[in-house]
Design brief:
Blueprint (H helix, E strand, L loop, with lengths): L7 H26 L1 H6 L9 H23 L6 H17 L3 H8 L2
Length: 108
């Protein structure tokens, strides 16, 4: 018996999570490299630029999930490629949130 339920919606959720994570990592590093970006992401003074980083990351996650889900809702993308891509996106995003990484890139 074959699987009649497409895995596209699940694949969209995984890739979107990786994209959102990568955006947060990029914004974390970007805010350390650019005072202008750091100030632009400071939407609530007590929390500093963390507010902007997380809200932009969540917005990108939701938008990418919506777009990918609509593209793949009836499809079966290659699961191994989806999983690998998700792990790479999450891994890079995660690394970019570590002070030794973003401080090294900033030359501190």
């Amino acid at each position: 018996m074959t699987n009649k339920v497409p895995n596209g919606p699940a694949a969209a959720a995984l890739i979107a999570a990786g994209i959102g994570n990568l955006v947060i990592g990029l914004l974390t590093t970007g805010a350390e490299l650019s005072a202008g970006l750091k100030n632009a992401l400071n939407w609530y003074n007590p929390a500093g630029p963390l507010t902007g980083k997380t809200l932009v990351g969540v917005a990108v996650w939701l938008i990418s999930w919506f777009v990918l889900n609509n593209m793949w809702k009836d499809k079966n993308p290659a699961w191994q490629r989806i999983f690998t891509t998700t792990l790479v996106l999450i891994g890079v995003g995660f690394l970019l949130t570590f002070p030794p990484i973003f401080q090294g890139l900033a030359g501190e």
